[in-house]
Amino acid sequence: MKSWRFTGTNNPLELVELPDPVAGPGQVVVDVKAAGICHTDVGILTDPGWMSMLGQVPVTLGHEDAGVISQVGGGVTDFQVGDRVAICPTTSAGCPGSSFDGGFGPKIVIGTQALVPIPDEVDFVKGAAATDAGMTSYAAVVRRGGVKQGDKVGIIGLGGLGQIGARVAHLLGAEVYVAEIKEDVWPLAEELGAKDVRRSIKDFDDVRFDVIVDFAGFGDTTADAVDVIKLGGVVVLVGMGKLDVTFDAKSLIVNQCDLRGSNGGTPEDIKGVYELMRSGELDPVTTTVGFDEIPEAIERLERGEVKGRLVVAY
Length: 314
Prior knowledge:
The chain is an alpha/beta fold. It is built from 8 helices and 16 strands. The longest helix has 21 residues, at 124-144. Its cofactor is Zn(2+).
């Protein structure tokens, strides 16, 4: 099977022929129907800091995966061939595209503890987007941010994660404000239920935020959030646009800012996202590309030319 392999920082992806995987005990083989492309993929390709987080190199990237089970291994009784499933990348089974070969190839072998059934009402593209963008956004807002009805919530970045985070916060009954530098996507903020949208979180002079979730993570975005959070407020850092952050210690101390990191989520978070998708309350914007377009699509994402979540549709 042809797969796009990462071989090292600043090396282009290589299209190579690999043998089809075989399901071992407690495992299944999933035929990939959709695989998300993430800023993590950009980081892996361009930043050597990511090398220590990879379980193997070379590796087929693609950690946001949805598909159909085509083979089951010994002892598997809770799933069967033909089931529509997504893969949670944060379980003890490991992370596709990091611990082992992921969705930038046509088949993945994975332990059943990572599988989440996809409701019939959710297509594979949305199903894939939910496994990282959806899960991570949901967990950051609901569990790490503790957002509740009536909170004033700032969302930094209205990309693939931010749009989901903004919508989830709105559905929780929060008053949502979006900071996004790309003004062409501002109308989307209103569609998601945001009260206002501006270029920077610092532009909301009249708002005292209970919670700010930074889905961009470009250093200055987090520093700005720490500067403007209300006394005792929570800043959640999700985005890894840059791996280094410098903020004003005075702001952190005087504001008694509770600065939290948030990384991924759980299968239960994915199920929560699927329930919102199934009901029609959550319908994230996606941009789809073909398998042969993966390297160029990653470059487009790096240049900021993608609207919504970028997903490979097989």
